[in-house]
């Protein structure tokens, strides 16, 4: 028993010593990036899938749990693969050129995005739309910082909020098929289901009646 514990301690010391070696840092960062991508993807997707599935999807309890597990796995796997690919390509480019330059990040991410997120499915679509909105905000702020556009005299956010909500409700009412399915489900719940009721049960307690009255 003691011999086994000693061997385990020796192995742990050797592993910790390896982790401290600077020459292996790039390779180890790729591995940890894979780990962090998998964990973060699961943390992000699991609660979202849980809420959306039980709010809007029909089916048995087992089918709903399976759907949640599949969505969580897909998000976790894709993010892990992307981080692994991105960091690996970044390290390779830096090693080949002897230094890191901004274009390396762009090229590595483009290749990773093509390989990992290129399949047009609901999970990838949601991730890309999430990123796109933040990219637009980031590029707008960068344009102001670089002086490409003048600093607004007033906060433009109220106008942006008005335009975003005006556009999305117009699309929902008249071109619904252009919106992402989960957004359609959310808006149907908010703006259409609130138009229908029969008595107090489906007016205040439930969204829709489940009996045959």
TrEMBL record:
InterPro entries: Pmp4. It holds the Pfam family Tim17. One of its GO terms (cellular component) is peroxisomal membrane. This is PXMP4 protein. It comes from Calcarius ornatus.
């Amino acid at each position: 028993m003691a011999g086994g514990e000693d061997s385990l301690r020796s192995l742990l010391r050797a592993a910790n010593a390896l982790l401290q070696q600077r020459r292996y840092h790039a390779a180890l960062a790729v591995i940890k990036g894979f780990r962090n991508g998998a964990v973060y993807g699961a943390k992000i997707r699991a609660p979202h899938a849980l809420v959306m599935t039980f709010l809007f999807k029909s089916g048995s309890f087992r089918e709903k749990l399976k759907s949640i597990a599949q969505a969580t796995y897909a998000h976790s796997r894709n993010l892990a693969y992307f981080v692994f690919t991105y960091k690996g390509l970044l390290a390779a480019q830096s090693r080949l050129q002897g230094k890191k330059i901004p274009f390396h990040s762009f090229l590595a991410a483009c290749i990773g995005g093509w390989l990992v997120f290129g399949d047009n499915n609901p999970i990838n679509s949601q991730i890309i739309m999430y990123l796109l909105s933040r990219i637009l905000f980031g590029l707008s702020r960068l344009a102001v910082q670089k002086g490409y556009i003048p600093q607004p005299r007033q906060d433009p956010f109220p106008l942006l909020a008005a335009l975003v909500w005006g556009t999305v409700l117009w699309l929902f009412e008249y071109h619904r098929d252009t919106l992402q399915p989960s957004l359609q489900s959310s808006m149907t719940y908010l703006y259409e289901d609130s138009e229908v009721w029969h008595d107090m049960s489906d007016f205040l307690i439930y969204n829709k009646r489940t009996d045959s009255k």
